[in-house]
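Fold this sequence, please.
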Amino acid sequence: ARARAVFAVSVTEGEFRVRRVLKLWGEGGTETVHREYGVRIYVDISKSYFNPTLSYEHWRVSEEVRDGERVLDLFSGVGGFSLHIAFRRHATCFVVDSNPHAVVALVRSTTLNRLRGRIVPVISRVEELGELLPRGSFSRAIVDLPHRSLDYLDLAASFVECGGYIHLYVLGGEDPSEVVSRVDRASYRLVELRRVLDYAPRKYVYGVKLVKE
């Protein structure tokens, strides 16, 4: 499709991981509908976090989910993981972010797609979820906050049933064994480790899949 505007963006900043944007050329504002693998995702890049290079990862995780699952999507941004899951599966996704603009964008995206599953949007800090959701009631959790995800591993896992999965995105260097050592805990079994994205020189985002035991 023809581009209508070009923006320069900064690194993510603040609690909501929002980028500062500067229009370089074109017409219109910072809102758009991004499309990936048949899913439409409404985004305002000036108000909420979104990383289009995660499109394959969104699809890949959605392919692992089975009908009937309950998924907890933490630090969701505009909900890319859950939109893919609900688009393909009869699953229920609780989508949690503290940025109200991101959650409003997610709700708008639900009207743009014919979803098989159900999405429950939750505006909340992850630390306060214990008052809102029952522990041990989800089949899997997604924690997409690479620079701090390990800080939330135990909390996220507390909402997952035994035998359920935790999909964790972690920053690491060139040696993946360093990432393995950081997620090596008695309560979890590592079943998958993949390099997902280049983040900075000699720094990468790894996708870690754990089973809660």
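Residues 40 and 185 are 38 Å apart (CA to CA). The longest strand covers residues 160-172.
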